[in-house]
Each structure stands twice: as structure tokens, then as C-alpha cells.
Amino acid sequence: MTTTLLRRTLLAAALLAPLVSMAADKPLVMGFSQVGAESEWRSANTASVKDAAKQAGISLKFADAQQKQENQVKAIRSFIAQKVDVIAFSPVVESGWDTVLKEAKAARIPVILTDRAVNVSDPSLYVSFIGSDFVEEGRKAGRWLLERAAKTPSASLNIVELQGTVGSAPAIDRKKGFEEVIKANPKLQIIRSQSGEFTRAKGKEVMEAFLKAKDKKIDVLYAHNDDMAIGAIQAIEEAGLKPGKDIVIVSIDGVKGAFQAMLAGKLNVTIECNPLLGPQLMQLARDVVAGKPVEKRITVIEGVFPAEVAAKELPNRKY
Ligand code: GYE
User: Fold this and answer.
1) Cα–Cα separations (whole angstroms), residue 53 to 61, 137, 279, 283
2) Residue 195's domain is classified under what CATH number?
């Protein structure tokens, strides 16, 4: 090589270097499709994902699906078109994902499920699922009620159930786990069960209808989330009854609103479901994009909080 040529080559390399290193420093891009903003839990989950992305230096494309699967499908397709590095989403319902997930796979974009599971024909359509064990949460609610029922002399305990979004993993699993446990005591019977869509407004509306029926006494309310329980508490009060006393209330999530309701004596127990998945999700995304092997199922550790511990625990709650 002549000296001029060598000089030119070195010059070209020097000019290219910043570009090459810019490419290496390019932040990882994540497309995230969120269910919506239906509950306190969901708001905490969204905040956790956004904060964690910022902390991790991950560029986040966030889309709110307003509880509609078709919006999630659209968002995922747009992430594919934008060639993001990784797609994460919390599926509003369990079924109907095969087609769009096959499109992501064909585009070689890894998919991480957060919070809720899916029912797909081929498990390789997603790399990992990080979220709670909803069946176990339902069992915990059932176990708390079994203990309470053992101390209650009445011959029957009529339960009304407010289910979450129809077809969603938490609604299906929380019902399943609860029923599995309460069948041990035949005096516990679910007399009515309907979806309150995980919202306060719908929880209130459905509880009003339950109370109006008046054919059977309602002893217990099992709500699949705190927001529906809080909506139902209003309906119970408006019907002239005492929530937490005339009707025992068991719910799931463990959001601040539930702790406040327990302190006011209106809610009897909440089963924790941790929404703060952001940091774990970002780490997982980095590992997946780096080609590291990851666990197919990552579960979150959670507790049970009866009203007796509410005052002590409330200051420690982060959501
Ligand atoms: O319990 C409920 C929210 O999927 C675990 O969705 C989540 C559930 C949560 O709307 O409050």
C-alpha cells in the first residue's frame, strides 16, 4: 500500500468510526402494547414499564389498546413495520393471537408476554412470559374465605362473584383457583357470577343488579380486582348495607385504594398482585435481544393482606 493510500484508508476509518459507534450505542427499541387504563393496578403497571425503560436507556414505543384486542393487533403490526428490536405486550384476552404472532416471528422480532398469558398453538411464538400466578391468587382468596367460613356458624354462605374481563387470563384463572379451594366446604356457594370488566363503574353497576335480585341473601363478594370491589362497596352502601360487615368482601391486587377501604372497615382482605414488572421486563428484553437463554415462565412473588394488617402495611405500599 502506498503512503497516500494508507493515509486515505486511515482517514476514511476515522470518519466512519463515530458512525459505527453510534450504531453500537443505538438504544434498544421496544414496542409495548398495554391493555388500557382500566384499573389502579394497570396505571401502576404502565408507570413501572415507562420508568424502567427510561432507567434502562431503552427507547419505548407505548400503545394503549383501550381494552380492545383489535387495537393490540394493530399496534403489534405497526411495531413489526417499524422494525423494533423487541415487542412486549399484555394480552387483553387469551385467545386469537396466532396470526399476528406468526407475523412477528417471520419478521424475527422476539415477543415477550407481560402480566397475562395467551393460548397459542405454538409456544415458540413468544420467548418468555413474565407475570403473576393468577390461579394461585384465586386459591389464596379461596383459602382466606375457607378459614373465615370455618369460624362462621351460619348454615350457608352465598357468594356473588365479579369477574374480570371475559376471556382474560386473570378472570379465567382467578375463578378457577377460587372454585377449586372453596368446594372443600359445601356451605360456600357462588350464587351469581358476572363480569365487571375490571373497572369501578362496571363493578358498581353489576353489584347493583346483584343486590336488586333480592331472591337470596348475599353474604360474600369475591371480586377479581380491587377496583370492582371499590365500585361494589359504593353499591352496597347505597343499598343501605355495610360493606365488610353485612357482606364480607374479598378482592385481588392490593392497590392503595384497597388498603384505604380496609382501614375504613369496608373491605376484608386483598390478595396481592404485583404490577411493578418494569425493571424485570427491561432486563429480560436486553437478555433476549443479546441472544441469552431466558426462562419461558417468570413468576412474581406475592402476599395476602387481611384488614388487620392494613394500617401497618399502607405506608409501605408502592402502588
Ligand atoms: O388484576 C386488574 C387489571 O392483568 C393482573 O388487570 C392484571 C389485572 C389486574 O385490570 O386490576
Assistant:
1) 10, 28, 8, 10
2) 3.40.50.2300
DSSP run (H or E) holding 194:
strand 188-195
Q: How far apart are CA 31 and CA 136, in angstroms?
A: 30
**For ligand 1, is residue 202 a contact (CB within 6 Å)?**
no
Considering the domain architecture, whether residues 164 and 38 belong to the same structural domain is answered as no
Same-domain check for residues 187 and 80? no
Chunk the chain into consecutive blocks of 10 residues (it has 319) and report each block's average pLDDT, rounded to whole numbers.
Answer: 53 49 74 98 97 98 98 98 98 98 98 97 97 97 97 92 98 98 97 98 98 95 98 98 98 97 98 95 97 94 91 92
Q: Is 39 in the pocket of ligand 1 (CB under 6 A)?
A: yes
The answer to whether position 312 is within a domain reads no
d(CA 249, CA 242) in angstroms, rounded, equals 11
Residue 112's SS3 state is strand
Task: Specify the number of domains making up the chain.
Answer: 2
Structural domain including 17 reads 9-131+275-300
In sequence order, what DSSP letters do the residues of 89-105 get, joined into one string? Answer: E--SSSSS-HHHHHHHH
38 lines ligand 1 (CB under 6 A): yes
Q: What is the pTM of this model?
A: 0.90
Q: Are 85 and 112 contacting, i.e. CB atoms less than 8 angstroms apart?
A: no
Q: Is 200 in the pocket of ligand 1 (CB under 6 A)?
A: no
Cα(42) to centroid(ligand 1), Å:
6
